[in-house]
Amino acid sequence: MKTNCLKGINTLRYSDIFLAMYSDNGSSCLHRNHSHVLVYMYSGELEIKERDTVARLHKGECAFIRKDFGVQLTKQPYREEQFKAIFLMFTDKFLRSFYSRLAKDSLPDDAQRSKVSLYRLPSNRPDIVSLFESMAPYFNSGIRPTDELLELKMSEGMYVLLNTDRNLYASLFDFADPWKIDIMGFMEQNYKNNLTLEEMAKYTGRSLATFKRDFSKVSALSPQEWVIRRRLEAAHALILSGARKVTDICYEVGFKNLSHFSKAYKGMYGCSPAHSI
Fold first, then answer.
1. Which CATH superfamily is domain 224-276 in?
2. Which letter, b or e, does each residue of 64-103 get, where b requires 16 or more Cβ atoms within 10 Å of its Cβ?
3. Which pTM value belongs to this model?
4. Which residues fall within 8 angstroms of residue 76, CB to CB, at 6 or more apart?
5. Per-residue pLDDT tens for 33-79?
6. Which sequence spans correspond to the domains of the chain?
7. CATH architecture of the domain formed by 9-172
8. pLDDT tens for residues 181-229?
């Protein structure tokens, strides 16, 4: 899997609302999904990898990708067509604003948040095609859409999702308890630190039992397993870049023991850190 994000990937981003990315050559781009995303494919291929599961999206397909730092997205050409897609990035700020305008008595009480990070939407649905095809001219011409239009298109995207599956309410509005810090956001910022479960719970505004329960809603891994996997992924990216020594990388990503790091790395990637270079 290529990880070159420097050549051939062009981004047109308006405010913090949506962006288009496309490749003019054969390069690929891999990154992590820091916000909930609704993506529509014009051409090329989007590969979504979550642990041992790989899914691919192609022309005309649309999907919701839940915010998950364990998901890797790779954008690449397909059948000699460049990668081109539009992503609606649902930031916490936008979601809170949208949620504040909803009639609370209309929210489903039985919505269940799924652990699955990728949700494919029906192909060729009129509201989906209409939404994304109406945005294409702005990216093709380079004309900046107005803030009002951006807000309207983001809201349309939200209703596309909410009218698809009522359970998506639980995934999109997972900040219903405002005193609780977002777990995955906290974990991503602190995976290099040696925190106990009790400390993780405390720093995210939860009891230990609540922390474990809430974490199980967003990951099939335990918190400790998630931390180890995230450290290994970070180490793998640094090793492939060739910018640092393996020993330095081991300690930089949070491991305290080189032997433990090497054993865990080999278990995940099938070779020792030194042989990955």
1. Homeodomain-like (1.10.10.60)
2. bbbbbbbbbbbbbbbeeebbbbbbbbbbeebbeebbeeee
3. 0.63
4. 2, 23, 26, 27, 28, 29, 44, 45, 47, 83
5. 678 889 999 989 988 887 678 899 999 999 998 876 567 778 888 88
6. 9-172, 183-220, 224-276
7. Sandwich (2.60)
8. 678 888 988 899 989 999 898 878 788 999 999 899 888 899 999 999 9
